[in-house]
Amino acid sequence: MTKPLLDVEDLRVRFHLRTGTVEAVRGVSFQLGRERLGIVGESGSGKSQTGRAILGLTPPPGEVTAKRLAFDGIDLQKASKRTLRDLRGGRISMVMQDPKYSLNPVMTIGEQIIEAYQAHRKASKAEARDRALAMLEAVKMRDPTRVFSLYPHEVSGGMGQRAMIAMMLVTDPDLLIADEPTSALDVTVSMEVLRILDELVTERGMGLIFISHDLKLVSSFCDRVLVMYAGRVVEELEAKNLRDAQHPYTQGLMRCLPTLADDVRPLPTLNRDPAWAL
Amino acid sequence: MLDIQNLKVVFGTGRLRVEAVKNVSFHVEQGAAYGLVGESGSGKSTVLRAICGLAPITGGRVTVNGEAVTSPRSKAFYRTVQMVFQDPYASLHPRHTVDSTLSEPLAIHGEKDAESRILQALREVGLGPSFRFRYPHQLSGGQRQRIAIARALILRPKVLLLDEPTSALDASVQAEILNLLDDLRRRLGLTYILVSHDLAVVAHLCERLLVMQHGEAVEETTAAALRSGAASNEYTQSLIQASQGFTRAAPQPAQAPAA
Amino acid sequence: MAGAPPFPQPSGLQAWLLSAEPNSRWQARLGRGYLGWRSFTKNPLAVLGLAIVILLVLVAAFADFIAPYSPIVGGDLRTERLLPPSETYWLGTDDQARDIFSRIIYGSRITLFVVILVSIIATPVGLLVGTVSGYLGGWVDTVLMRITDIFLAFPRLVLALAFVAALGPGIENAVIAIAITSWPPYARIARAETLMIRNSDFIAAVKLQGASTPRIIMGHVVPLCVSSLIVRVTLDMAGIILTAAGLGFLGLGAQPPMPEWGAMVATGRNYLIDQWWVAAMPGIAIFVVSLGFNLLGDGLRDVLDPKAAK
């Protein structure tokens, strides 16, 4: 294996609250090449905080520590604010859950994509505009020029999320972190968005971290899956080998979902073993 | 038990006029569970809200237990029909303890022995008496939804309207709530109308279901037919396929119109 | 390390208060109150404000015991007029040879009277108008809010002046005048809060239990509006005290010889250059009490306002 794109070792995120210190992420380690990595867990498992910590977006009063947190050989912990700013949005991008909150409501979609591009690449206005239009086309907008001049509230959730992806990928990043990119969308729309995401990631050969609560979705989309529980990775496995999951938590997560295929009644529930959180 | 004939719901007038539900009809037997499936904007939740009076009935007829509903609904209606909402974080009053949340319906209907009925309601949803004086912020999402179910059941209704009762919950908690709902229906002989975007959830809980799109009924089918994949409608097929997870070499699904 | 618990060893009482499984309604309520108290005491300025307000209440309650002299009857007009602060007269004497310290002590009663009366008249009116208007909407909302707008359009002091001019000067009329001009902002706040609450699921849920509209407003909407109103009223107290003092200063509020702080400043103005303490002492009292209410209001906002609270 060549040098990994992202190298994370013993990542910890702590929040110092009035009531005491809460450790949201407790020693997560993984390496990422140019592949699709899924991080799965339930709410409170620390999966989103892991993604945010990599980008340096941990909200205060959070504190991030790690033995190693390196992106393409650059130590993210020691890097200057300027380097971080250049990396963020330039070489590492993030797609959030709800486009309603992550797009600026008073700028047109086109302007936002242009701004994202010009923030990281020296380009004339016309050049940036061409890039933006090309990007909108790449995310399969039917009428890119029309979408270009629309405001975020004028588009549907699925279109908003595709615009978001266009904005995040316009700088050709090496790594994309997608935090629940489709859970605010309808199923048929989300399949469409995922298909676009899949194509772009494969085409451009970038690394993808796909954070989701949906084990089924992640395992069908990614190459490798990390299962998180209470701030720790309890199991790491190849997506295609999900059926052979060893950890009882992973097994429980898979079984407790009702399926169309068979009718299990009552549904098996998860007996949370306190030992898993140790 | 519940009969809906040509239900039509219109919001607003003039340019803002939106036909949220167009001519939807279905019938639910006593003790049955009926599902309404569709994506956002399909009008499935509006049907539910029109039944219980939170949305206007513009046209058509809603009959509960053989009697057409009145507007505003009578007190007797609310003793027959109750509802559980989607988001357990929004459906409980933030300043009320579990105790006052549960005693409110009893006080409204002038019921006696609130004490024992609250404890019984808590027991029914699998929570102990230690939960009685907690505030919502001291409860997890699953526990909140259990309280919401207890509140709906405390008046001993015959029909329970369930609006996406598990979609805000984690998968493992969803399984617990689905088991609870399944169990309660059998024990108390309840009639359910379940609204969900998740085909698997509907197929798990209901025998029959109606697929909706853009405010119209697309297809009425049974859970058994759904399991065997025998959906005649193209839209239903695309929903079934999407619920199986992401498939790489799959053909393009039916284009979901971007509104 | 930050985040250490403020009390090193939880006592039995504290554990009872903070119990995650309260055994009674009262324990749940007290526990909630205790948590609020704990976050309130985190803010030293808020505690200072509370201390000032408590001091005001105590002084007003025990004025008879604290004040060394009568606030009304002066001393010897030949020898004891306009004396500077000394051991005998801590804050000096005024032009009627009355002890300023005693007058300020008794004046606290008038200030407290004004503040309490205005808040118990204006707050419920504003709360009721706002919640009813916001919850019912439609023409009720239009009518009530236009009435509110009309009251809001009057300058407070001018309306108070007109009112007092019509009814005759006096502290009661001043209170009524202030109350009439201070409820509209409360109605607006309550309405804004109600509009947010109105469409929430928990209101829909009580509706589905068959609750009547008055029951929903009183039992479910009002409790959520009260806290932001309390904060606003506390912050307004300073303004109310200043308006009362202003009316007193203009001779339209409390009438002589009542020891009202504003009126005291007004009389002291004649001697401002040579006998500064006559005007300055009641002025300082007004300042301190207003500041106290403001600090308290800020502290309460941190505890009560769910939007500002973290």
From TrEMBL, chain A:
CDD domains given in the database record: ABC_NikE_OppD_transporters
Domain of life: Bacteria
Domain ABC transporter: 6-255
Location of the protein in the cell: Cell inner membrane
Classification via Pfam families: ABC_tran
Membrane topology: Peripheral membrane protein
Keyword annotations: ATP-binding, Cell membrane, Membrane, Nucleotide-binding, Transport
Signal peptide: none
Main localization of the protein described in the UniProt heading: membrane
MF terms in GO: ATP binding
Tagged with keyword Cell inner membrane: no
Sequence similarity: Belongs to the ABC transporter superfamily.
Name of the featured protein: ABC transporter ATP-binding protein
Source organism (scientific name): Microvirga splendida
UniProtKB/TrEMBL annotation, chain B:
Pfam families noted in UniProt: ABC_tran
Domain ABC transporter: 2-239
Gene3D superfamilies: P-loop containing nucleotide triphosphate hydrolases
Keyword Electron transport: no
InterPro entries tied to this protein: AAA+_ATPase (IPR003593), ABC_transp_ATP-bind (IPR050319), ABC_transporter-like_ATP-bd (IPR003439), ABC_transporter-like_CS (IPR017871), P-loop_NTPase (IPR027417)
General function of this protein: Part of the ABC transporter complex GsiABCD involved in glutathione import. Responsible for energy coupling to the transport system.
Name under which the protein is recorded: Glutathione import ATP-binding protein GsiA
Organism of origin: Microvirga splendida
UniProtKB/TrEMBL annotation, chain C:
UniProt membrane topology term: Multi-pass membrane protein
Localization, UniProt: Cell membrane
Keyword Transport: yes
TM stretches of this protein: 45-67, 110-137, 157-181, 237-256, 276-297
Keyword Kinase included in the entry's annotation: no
Annotated keywords: Cell membrane, Membrane, Peptide transport, Protein transport, Transmembrane, Transmembrane helix, Transport
Protein name, entry field: ABC transporter permease
Chief localization: membrane
Family the UniProt entry places it in: Belongs to the binding-protein-dependent transport system permease family.
Domain ABC transmembrane type-1: 108-297
InterPro entries: BP-dependent_transpt_permease, MetI-like, MetI-like_sf, OppC_N
Organism: Microvirga splendida
Phylogenetic lineage: Bacteria, Pseudomonadati, Pseudomonadota, Alphaproteobacteria, Hyphomicrobiales
CDD domains for the chain: TM_PBP2
